TrEMBL record, chain A:
Species per Swiss-Prot/TrEMBL record: Halomonas korlensis
Domain Mce/MlaD: 42-118
Molecular function via GO: phospholipid binding; phospholipid transporter activity
Matches recorded under InterPro entries: ABC_MlaD, Mce/MlaD, MlaD_Phospholipid_Transporter
PANTHER family tied to this protein: INTERMEMBRANE PHOSPHOLIPID TRANSPORT SYSTEM BINDING PROTEIN MLAD, INTERMEMBRANE PHOSPHOLIPID TRANSPORT SYSTEM BINDING PROTEIN MLAD-RELATED
Name of the protein this chain belongs to: Phospholipid/cholesterol/gamma-HCH transport system substrate-binding protein
Pfam families: MlaD
Stretch forming the signal peptide: none
Domain of life: Bacteria
UniProtKB/TrEMBL annotation, chain B:
Subunit: The complex is composed of two ATP-binding proteins (MlaF), two transmembrane proteins (MlaE), two cytoplasmic solute-binding proteins (MlaB) and six periplasmic solute-binding proteins (MlaD).
Spans through the membrane: 48-77, 146-169, 197-216, 237-259
Main localization category: membrane
CC annotations in GO: ATP-binding cassette (ABC) transporter complex
Keywords: Cell inner membrane, Cell membrane, Membrane, Transmembrane, Transmembrane helix, Transport
Protein function: Part of the ABC transporter complex MlaFEDB, which is involved in a phospholipid transport pathway that maintains lipid asymmetry in the outer membrane by retrograde trafficking of phospholipids from the outer membrane to the inner membrane. Probably responsible for the translocation of the substrate across the membrane.
Subcellular location: Cell inner membrane
Protein name: Intermembrane phospholipid transport system permease protein MlaE
Family according to the record: Belongs to the MlaE permease family.
GO MF term set: phospholipid transporter activity
Membrane topology label: Multi-pass membrane protein
Length: 154, 260
């Protein structure tokens, strides 16, 4: 009888370890957050070219992650990309109206993310506003093309 | 000419017949009404099939993660892309290596033992004695082993992935000096929970069903002699390894390959 109890304990620990492992894979490896979506606010930004930016990519400010990209869609009015970002609600009313958004790359081959930097406007961005001043992703082919055409002109 | 045709026909009929028998067997035992002591029997089998397989699976996972990081680092560093190491280790473990290698180890460690155990029960006529006293051996012997396998292998696969990713971290970051932030950061931005972890878990559930089914059926269906037991044990390992590797290609093609 005692043997069966320790056996049950072992099996229980085994299953608990499996479930904890799954939680680890969810939180640490695939980077899901337990935060409810309630404490975020939305900002939009239009980019001429987003490169290979993907939904769920990071939004950073001075290198600190402050939010994630929730959706990317084509704006058929201007034919550019509209990027919807979910930012921490701490920043609501703290970002000036002339904040700029740029698409940056982590390292040479790393993932692309959005970097925000504040300006000096006294008016602040509110939930659902659009960032006007944006800088598109650097596309390597375009850079090479510019470089080659400059060489030809010289 | 006609003789060889008939042999081919007989081979086909036999193969279909045993497939049908195995299918009926799976249905009958997996969905048998659990008896009152069923849970206790299941716990006992979980202990044998799951807890005791933990050591070999975790140690293999650690070394596979370490080797992945070592190989990946030396190749990626040539392209100046060593920050993609975490992504490479995590994706290859979650999508392919953890389900497949854990299933192969499981077939060797637990599947062969299941076959031999049930086979010896059959050879010593314990199974027919149970039938004589009115106990259904499918419910009493087979069903707990089957369900223990179904539950244990996915859990072992999770353990394999976790330990492998930690082993990759140990080698890539602690020993070779990669940057810790990019190891976890690139991993988190490229791994999708449902697409990568979820599909890996679906794979390992399919493998669990296939491997345990083959092991238990080979034990139940063998010729009850000492030679028959040894043949059946070998067949378990061979068939389940082949089935796992073949099914892995099919599942990968459906899940990630865009073949349809």
């Amino acid at each position: 009888m005692k043997r069966s109890k320790t056996m049950e304990l072992g099996v229980g620990l085994f299953m608990l370890a499996g479930i904890l492992g799954l939680v680890f894979l969810g939180l640490r490896v695939s980077g899901m957050t337990l935060n409810a979506s309630g404490d975020t606010f939305r900002l939009e930004a239009n980019f001429a070219n987003i490169g290979s930016l993907k939904p769920r990519a990071r939004v950073t400010m001075a290198g600190v992650t402050v939010g994630r990209i929730s959706a990317i869609e084509l704006d058929t009015e201007w034919y550019d990309a509209r990027v919807v970002m979910e930012l921490d609600s701490d920043l609501e009313g703290e970002l000036s109206r002339d904040t700029t958004a740029a698409i940056l790359t982590a390292g040479l081959l790393g993932e692309q993310y959005v970097g925000l930097s504040v300006g000096g406007d006294p008016e602040m961005l509110a939930d659902g506003d659009t960032i006007r001043d944006t800088q598109s992703a650097v596309v390597l082919e375009e850079l090479i093309q510019q470089f080659v055409s400059n060489m030809v002109n010289d | 000419m006609i003789g060889s045709l008939r042999r081919l026909g007989r081979f086909g009929c036999n193969a279909l017949e045993s497939l049908g028998r195995a299918g009926g067997f799976l249905l009958l035992s997996a969905f048998a009404v659990p008896s009152r002591e069923g849970f206790g029997l299941w716990v006992r089998q979980m202990h044998f099939v799951g807890v005791l397989s933990l050591a070999i699976v975790l140690v293999s996972g650690l070394f596979i993660g370490m080797v992945l990081a070592l190989q990946g680092y030396t190749i990626l560093v040539e392209f100046g892309a060593e920050q993609a190491l975490g992504q490479m280790v995590a994706l290859s473990l979650l999508r392919e290596l953890a389900p497949v290698v854990a299933a192969l180890l499981f077939a060797g460690r637990a599947g062969s033992a299941l076959t031999a155990e049930i086979g010896l029960m059959k050879a010593t006529e314990q199974l027919s004695s149970m039938e004589m006293i009115g106990v259904d051996p499918l419910r009493r012997v087979v069903a707990p082993r089957l369900w223990a396998g179904f539950v244990a292998l996915p859990l072992l696969t999770v353990g394999f992935s976790v330990v492998g990713i930690w082993g990759g971290y140990l080698v890539g970051v602690e020993w070779l000096g990669g940057f810790e932030g990019s190891y976890w950061g690139n991993m988190q931005s490229s791994v999708e929970f449902l697409d990568d972890v979820g599909n890996g878990m679906i794979k390992s559930m399919v493998f669990a069903v296939v491997v345990t089914w083959i092991a238990v059926f080979q034990g139940y269906d063998l010729i009850p002699t000492s030679e028959g037991i040894s043949r059946a044990t070998t067949r378990t390992v061979v068939y389940s390894s082949l089935a796992v590797l073949g099914l892995d290609f099919v599942l990968t093609a459906v899940m990630f390959g865009g073949l349809s």
